[in-house]
Amino acid sequence: MTDTLWIGTRKGLFALRRQPRGWKLTGPQFLGHIVHHVVQDPREPKRLVMAAKTGHLGPTIYFSTDRGKSWKESAQPPAFPKVAEGEKGRAVQTTFWLTAGHASQSGTWYCGTAPPGLFRSGDHGATWTAVTGFNDNPMYSKWAAGFATPGGELLHSVLVDPRDPQHLYLSLSVGGTFESTDGGANWSPLNQGVHADFLPDPEAPWGHDPHLVAMHPQQPDRLYQQNHCGIYRLDRPASRWQRIGDNMPRKIRDIGFPIVLHAENPDIAWVFPMDGTTVWPRTSVDGKPAVYMTRDGGRKWQRQDAGFPRSQAWWTVLRQAMCRDDRKGPGLYLGNTNGEVWGSAEGGARWRNLARHLPQIYSLTFAASRGRGHA
Amino acid sequence: MPDAAPETRAVPPCTVRVASPLRSYTGGAAQVAADGSDLSAVLACLDAAYPGMRFRMIDEQECIRPHIRLFVNGNEALRLDAAVRPGDTVHLVCALSGG
């Protein structure tokens, strides 16, 4: 077997397979499907789960037991409970986010949807049930108030504490970040210190727009967040986020979608800034794509643009479309809105194009030939 | 001479015309047969034969999804309790959407 980069696009599923002399593009599978996320099971690397829909058909989940050679559809995809006739019920429009459960809980997965819903599978993705502690929380209508992003109101960044399967985080775009310490039965907002310049109350307890929240795998008390309004770090048990994006160059600012963490060093992270000024072009800043890296927890940031186009490259990278591999470099990868995949074997020091002319890329995830993959 | 046994005739199923996005469920078939006295029953029959097909068209609140249209003998059905009679033709249509 070989390392794989799974590429979820607006028009199907593709893969880059690591070869002795580079990467080989394969696919498409599910041509025409909108593929939001494909994630390898770190507990059983032969297994994968995929969140998908088409332009016409409703959202569903597919899963594979043979590293993506073949796929089966979930017999019971994520769905909200049916309400009584005459009442207005929620219906899943998009299966958006996937997270493998705790290492001790074989077969457990979490799925985040739009409208915001948290769903759990205990059978490797074959069937899904609602996590009612969140979906039916008395505060749900306030936390998920209906401020939808262009892709819907999304539940994403489901994080499982590797020390405790009962300790979970999730985030809403728009709504904020929330924490559960009892396996999802109860949730509390965790948004202090996060800016929300689109809200009347800058200190509102929820209503924020986290684009991606990441937990360091070796130091789970350290969280990073790329938000609609900046880059943040939180070291638990503290509950007030620190805006480390203020240390980014003023001309670049600290808006973007993805944030990727180093496997071992909790002070190292990478972001891909985009233009969040005026009407929010959501392109690379000035048409000059660049990754920014911190080695000290966000005090200083270093531009990494070697190998990228020097100008007139107006793409960006969505929240699930940047990842790293399990090598020393590490290898960093990003998929952009123009259907290109770029990789760096040296931790972002130099980039080269690995694929182009693909459909718009929604997610890019690394699947290790053995052992852990990285969402 | 004993009375003749009442004639028993199988109720002919309706014909279901399947749009191309749904044919991954029917093994590529563009036309299949299904039983049911209304659309809801026809769709249940289809889902029993082709698991998962119904949910791609009908959401968990029993609403027809935004880009799906259902027709019985050429007339659009807006509700799942629309009557279907033996021999009718049901069209499962995926409306034009997106680019």
Index terms:
heterodimer, A: 375 residues, mainly beta, 4-stranded antiparallel sheet, 2% helix, B: 99 residues, alpha+beta, Ubiquitin-like (UB roll), 5-stranded mixed sheet, globular
What can you see in these coordinates?
The complex is a heterodimer of chains A (375) and B (99). Chain A is mostly beta strands. Chain A is built from 2 helices and 28 strands. The radius of gyration of chain A is 19 Å and the shape is globular. With 99 residues, chain B is an alpha+beta fold. Chain B has one domain (14-94): Ubiquitin-like (UB roll), CATH 3.10.20.30. Chain B is built from 2 helices and 5 strands. A 5-stranded mixed sheet of chain B has the order 2-1-5-3-4, covered by helices on one side. Chain B is globular, with a radius of gyration of 16 Å. The A-B interface holds A 32, 54-58, 60, 73-75, 77, 79-83, 89-92 and B 19, 21-22, 51-52, 55-63, 65, 67-68, 94-95, 97-98.
**Which spans of chain B of ≥5 residues are poorly predicted at pLDDT below 50?**
none
Secondary-structure-based class of chain B equals alpha+beta
| Number of E-state strands of chain A | 28
Mean pLDDT of chain A: 95
Overall 3D form of chain A: globular
